[in-house]
Design goal:
The complex is a heterodimer of chains A (336) and B (618). Chain A is 28% helix and 19% strand. In chain A, helix 5 packs antiparallel against helix 9 (278-285). By secondary structure, chain A is an alpha/beta fold. The longest helix of chain A has 15 residues, at 303-317. Chain A contains 11 helices and 12 strands. Chain A has helices at 27-37, 76-86, 98-104, 106-115, 160-166, 180-192, 214-217, 222-225, 278-285, 303-317, 323-327, and strands spanning 48-52, 67-70, 91-97, 120-125, 171-176, 197-202, 226-229, 236-237, 243-248, 251-256, 290-297, 332-335. Chain B is of the alpha/beta class. Chain B has 20 helices and 22 strands. Chain B has a 7-stranded mixed β-sheet, sandwiched between helices. Chain B has a 6-stranded mixed β-sheet with strand order 3-4-2-5-6-7, sandwiched between helices. In chain B, strand 5 (85-90), helix 2 and strand 6 (103-112) form a beta-alpha-beta unit. Chain B is globular. The chains are: A alpha/beta (336), B alpha/beta (618). Strand 12 (332-335) of chain A pairs antiparallel with strand 9 (237-243) of chain B. Bound molecules: thiamine diphosphate (TPP) and iron/sulfur cluster (SF4). Residues 54-57, 73, 97-100, 124, 126, 128-132, 137 of chain A line the site of thiamine diphosphate (TPP).
Chain lengths: 336, 618
């Protein structure tokens, strides 16, 4: 990215298109958080590209006044990979839903993470197919009644974070769809991270899966049910900041500070930058508390860096500068 | 080095077809390439075709493990590797068994008698030894104990194990064939010196065995005379032998350089297209970004992303891969980005006949997408002109802002022919539709009035920020629009854009006759077979048979009907069940067409074509 030449406000990133999500949908929160985050990132507007698949969430690029492509179902990571390889200077964002990335696009989703190309993925997880009006998705719970599972869903769900870290995601963050301030910060964190950053937003679909996350995201219970982790800080949560995580054998356990001789020092300190994903996986899987914030942020070589190194080496050693050098090399002969 | 003796008798031949066959480990591909390379440098026109087993490691000596390489060389124009062979070199019984049918009666077969053991004969399912049971009495069989002679020749070379010794026996065969056809061994010895620089004992062994074969043939009374094929009259210039897939890859390299854009390839391996990927990944020094994706869909979609970002983007595949790319191709068509999709056709449907050739993806290329989604479809017709059509595909994509499907096929992709090297300086100009700056009333779907190509605004360009996508878009702003009239308008303008390409492609012409009783019509990779068959019947006096060949299929050349109207009968020849004939009928519904279709995974044979032509003008 070029050095910034202009100061932007959130208005600069809002396109002239009328936003058409259902009133009350968390997608609006995410849109606004992105429009607020971008001016903070020091990127020129013309260098920002949003690529999406298909779904309610994937309409997102139309509402951003940046470059963008609304692609086809599930393929945004691959389209974005092409954009980024073609021009590594761009800030490329993938917008996807749980159906889009976990079902039809599952293959591209795992491979883009494995490669660690410098993209930012925002996964709108509403545990349902919105645009096609309410079928279960690969993140829907067992037993969930939907249009395509009237007697209850029988397919066990993926946990996106678990799948992602299993596919070698170096950066994974999670945030509730109703916490715009933290969401904005995470978007900025994701952008700063060199490599693929994945941010899962627990997004409420008011129409087909209303309240699916309220047990952790509702304002009244949020502090007691969510643990917002920060690198280098002890994993403490609760309205009274008295709950925390400790390791008990191979399991994470919730303890109360002040009870059974537990002090603040006993609480695990979050290390997002650790290469070994074991603890990150445990945090991702935890059902109580729901862990949010940057869970994993391990700095690694990116695909572009590897590519650049190989290309530079090849260029250094090659005797070909123009295609003619190649065409007229080797076994050639003259006809007179 | 060995040069030919002047006192030997020469029979002068116009052309000859030689096939080298053996076990997949016998080095037949190398033997064949060396012979064709030497002949090309000598000045012959050539056409070659390799035939590999489809199993990677077939059991030794088995019928399906036979690897072959056919080369057709001539002092006259050569347009196919040929069907009936004049000389078969068979390194084992399985090779003999599977290839004997191709040898013209009365012609020569060279065999390695050492390989005709009981075990090998069993593996080749021979009940008795064909060398002993008179079953070959219609051929001139030259029996040579090549393995033992090779061992003998190398008994004084130090540092070689048994395996490396027997591995050189293909060079003994090559040496013999060099002598028979009056070729020098220089080129091949040069090759050893370059290829094995760090292993002098291998250079020595191969050179020794090659020479041993050459001298053996010279002294062998079983070969009564030797043959000369004079140099062909070819346009002056610098040449190399090129494989179709390499030529395709190089056409793109040339187009990238000429257009000043970087080349991006998104691809997933599939036979027989993979060699294009293999070739392009080598050329990072030209800034080529070759991305091996997780599947065909990611191959094409990554290319679409690269096209959006301003690269010359291509994706390469074969039939089943094109099927997977269909949805994305529709997207590329809808967003009107330049993209080249290469489909190296193979036998279908489904996985079909992966290592065999066919022309049956034509309708898939034309129509294999949802909705009204026309794209440019063009086809290459020879190994070397894959270069030109790859270049042309890139040019059309960039100048008309549309996906272009380039069809080649297994036959021309794996075959090779001499290529008069084209310097990039001499290639036609390639323009593009990139807008570098905002202007009043700029919109992403503003179009060039003549070509109807939309302008191409690339991320990173200030003030041209815009969104595109698969949803129908307003004709001016490019914003999503479901207005009924707008959809109709856009459907028509996208079709019209492709139609107008007619003004930018060459008209067709006929060869051999401009009017007459019969017009032979072909497209794509059958050019060589059809051309030489029509040529032959002409030489036999059937001067009322013309030939025309299509490289541009959508849109069709402007003068198509006019050319057709000058002939009484039109015969469309294709390696499928009549797909091009269908397209012609859709375009010209009153046209009466005869068809000659072959659906065997094999190219056309010369005699089947000539018989058919003669029968139609009788
Ligand atoms: C190839 C293809 N298959 C199916 C569809 C239909 N489709 C559109 S969106 C969607 C599911 C989207 O769900 P999700 O990704 O969870 O997004 P949401 O709408 O919930 O934001 C489906 C099945 C399509 N557009 N294309
Ligand atoms: S259907 Fe659900 S996800 Fe889609 S816009 Fe409406 S509330 Fe949002």
């Amino acid at each position: 990215m070029e050095t910034i030449t202009k100061k932007y406000t959130f208005k600069d990133f809002a396109s002239d298109q009328e936003v058409r999500w259902c009133p009350g949908c968390d997608d609006y929160v995410i849109l606004r958080a992105m429009q607020k985050a971008l001016p903070e990132m020091g990127i020129n507007k013309e260098d920002v590209v949003f690529i999406s698949g298909i779904g309610c969430s994937s309409r997102f690029p139309y509402y951003m006044d940046s470059y963008g492509m609304h692609g086809i179902h599930g393929r945004a990571p691959a389209i974005a990979t092409g954009v980024k390889l073609a021009n590594p200077k761009l800030s490329v964002w993938v917008i996807t839903g749980d159906g889009d990335s976990m079902a039809i696009g599952g293959n591209h989703f795992i491979h883009v993470l494995r490669r660690n190309i410098d993209l930012n993925i925002i996964l709108f997880n509403n545990e349902i197919y919105g645009l096609t009006k309410g079928q279960f998705s690969p993140t829907s719970l067992v037993g969930q009644k939907t249009k395509s599972s009237p007697y209850g869903n029988t397919q066990p769900p993926f946990s996106p974070g678990e799948l992602a870290i299993g596919a070698q995601a170096r950066f994974f963050a999670r945030i509730g769809g109703n916490t715009p301030k933290e969401m904005t910060e995470l978007f900025i964190e994701g952008q700063k991270f060199k490599g693929t950053s994945l941010i899962e937003v627990l997004q409420n679909c008011v129409i087909f899966n209303d309240g699916c996350f309220t047990q952790f995201t509702d304002k009244k219970v949020r502090e007691d049910k969510q643990l917002y982790v920060e690198h280098g800080k002890p994993m403490i949560f609760g309205k009274d900041r008295d709950k925390g995580l400790v390791l008990n054998g191979l399991k994470l356990e919730v303890v109360t500070i002040g009870e059974k001789g537990i002090t603040q020092e006993d609480i695990l300190v979050h290390n997002a930058k650790e290469q070994d994903p074991t603890l990150h996986q445990m945090l991702v899987r935890l059902e109580y508390p729901m862990v949010t914030g940057v869970i994993r942020s391990y700095d690694d070589v990116t695909l572009e860096e590897r590519e650049d190194a190989v290309t530079a080496e090849v260029k250094r050693n090659s005797k070909f500068h123009k295609t003619d050098d190649l065409f007229f090399s080797g076994d050639i002969y003259q006809v007179f | 080095m060995v040069t030919t003796q002047s006192n030997k008798q020469h029979e002068i031949l116009e052309a000859v077809i030689i096939r080298f066959v053996g076990d997949s480990g016998d080095g037949m591909q190398l033997t064949g390439t060396q012979f064709s390379g030497t002949s090309a440098m000598f000045g012959n026109d050539i056409a070659t075709f390799p035939n590999y087993p489809s199993e990677i490691r077939a059991p030794q000596g088995s019928l399906y493990g036979v690897s072959g390489f056919q080369v057709h060389i001539g002092s006259v124009e050569i347009s196919t590797p040929g069907d009936e062979v004049d000389l078969l070199v068979a390194m084992n019984p399985a090779g003999l068994k599977t290839n004997l049918h191709a040898v013209k009666p009365g012609h020569t077969i060279i065999v390695d008698t050492d390989a005709f053991t009981k075990k090998n004969l069993e593996k080749a399912q021979y009940e008795s030894n064909p060398l002993e049971d008179n079953s070959l009495e219609n051929y001139r069989v030259i029996e040579v104990a090549m393995t033992s002679l090779t061992k003998e020749a190398l008994k004084n070379v130090a540092g070689l194990d048994n395996k490396s010794i027997t591995r050189t026996k293909n060079m003994f065969a090559l040496g013999m064939v060099y002598w028979m056809y009056d070729r020098s061994t220089d080129h091949t010895i040069d090759f050893f010196n370059k290829k094995f620089t760090s292993r002098p004992e291998i250079i020595e062994a191969n050179t020794k065995v090659l020479n041993a074969g050459f001298y053996f043939a010279e002294t062998l009374e079983l070969i009564p005379n030797s043959y000369t094929i004079a140099p062909a009259k070819m346009p002056a210039g610098t040449y190399r032998i090129i494989m179709g897939n390499t030529a395709t890859a190089w056409g793109f390299l040339a187009a990238a350089e000429k257009s000043g854009l970087e080349l991006f390839l998104g691809s997933y391996p599939i036979t027989p297209a993979t060699d294009i990927l293999h070739e392009l990944v080598k050329h990072k020094h030209f800034g080529v970004k070759a991305f091996q994706a997780e599947d065909e869909i990611a191959g094409i979609t990554s290319a679409i992303g690269a096209a959006f970002a301003g690269d010359l983007a291509i994706t390469t595949t074969s039939g089943p891969g094109l099927a997977l790319k269909g949805e994305a191709l529709g997207l590329a068509m809808m967003v009107e980005l330049p993209l080249v999709v290469v489909n190296v056709q193979r036998g279908g449907p489904s996985t079909g006949l992966p290592t065999k050739t066919e022309q049956s993806d034509l309708l898939q290329a034309m129509y294999g997408r949802n909705g009204e989604s026309p794209v440019i479809v063009i086809a290459a017709s020879t190994p070397s002109n894959c270069f030109n059509f790859a270049y042309q595909a890139a040019k059309l994509a960039l100048e008309h802002m549309t996906p272009v499907i380039l069809l080649t096929d297994g036959y021309i992709a794996n075959g090779s022919s001499p290529w008069k090297i084209q310097s990039v300086n001499d290639m036609p100009e390639i323009k593009n539709n990139i807008v570098s700056k905002y202007y009043d009333n700029w919109h992403p779907y503003n179009r060039n009035e003549e070509t109807l190509a939309r302008n191409w605004a690339i991320p990173g360009t200030p003030k041209l920020e815009h969104r595109i996508g698969g949803l129908e878009k307003d004709k001016v702003t490019g914003n999503v629009s479901y207005v009924p009239e707008n959809h109709e308008f856009m459907t028509k303008i996208r079709a019209e854009k492709i139609k107008r390409v007619q003004d930018y492609i060459p008209e067709i012409s006929t060869e051999f006759a401009e009017e007459g009783d019969l017009l032979v019509v072909g497209w794509g990779g059958t050019y060589g077979s059809l051309h030489s068959a029509v040529k032959q019947v002409n030489e036999e006096g059937f001067t009322n048979i013309g030939f025309t060949h299509f490289n541009y299929i959508n849109p069709l050349p402007k003068n198509t009907l006019e050319v057709f109207s000058k002939f009484k009968k039109i015969l469309v020849c294709e390696l499928n069940n009549g797909q091009f004939a269908k397209i012609l009928k859709i375009n010209f519904n009153k046209l009466e067409l005869l068809q000659f279709n072959k659906i065997q995974g094999l190219p056309f044979g010369n005699s089947e074509l000539t018989e058919k032509f003669k029968q139609l003008v009788k």
